[in-house]
Amino acid sequence: MVVTVLAEVRAPLDTPVLPGVCLTGPMETIDALRSKRDTRSYANEPIDREVLETVLDAARMAGSAKNMQPIRMVVVTEDADKVALKESGDYAAWIDNAPVCVVVTAKADAGPRRMFDVGRHAQNLMVAAHASGLASCPVTIHRQDVARSVLGIPDDVEPSMIVTLGAPGPDMGPSPIAGPRLPLDDYVAEGRWD
Fold first, then answer.
1. What's the pTM value of the predicted model, to 2 decimals?
2. Integer distance in angstroms from the first to the last C-alpha of the chain?
3. Residue 188 lies in a domain
4. CA distance 131 to 103
5. Within-domain flag for 19
6. Total count of domains within the chain
7. Is residue 178 included in any domain, yes or no?
8. Could you read off the pLDDT of 121-144 as tens digits, one per residue?
9. What kind and span of H or E run contains 159?
């Protein structure tokens, strides 16, 4: 695949994007997408507020079905709240090690595509975090009532996912379930399935 960049400029995130203009940042987009890995090990240091706002703003720019914009995020930094949130997910026992937990929510009446929108916003958040030098990992919320209770989320809003954020911690070695990605030829079918 050949990608032609017609122009490169640096601009604030609120600058309108024009067709054919590529806004560059600290890491090239394709590199950020290809090198991002889920990380559960974090350094014990806070995230700079400006960096956090930048990655949250990148998440905000993700699209949504019919432009309904049903996604809202809750930034959690209090240790007691992070510990309490561990009970919301079957695989969330480690999340209080992250300096920041971002709870991604969707309005319950946003239609059948709301979970796709949750994923789009979470992916923007994680790739922007990675490009900014932060580690991240998505965690499914299995018990929405727990997250609602801990964070005061109303009943008409579904807390769906937690994204942990922080400076990368010590390397924990390869994940026991890590492996190479499927080859592109196995991943993509041309024209029809078979």
1. 0.81
2. 23
3. no
4. 20
5. no
6. 1
7. no
8. 999 999 999 999 999 999 999 999
9. strand 157-166
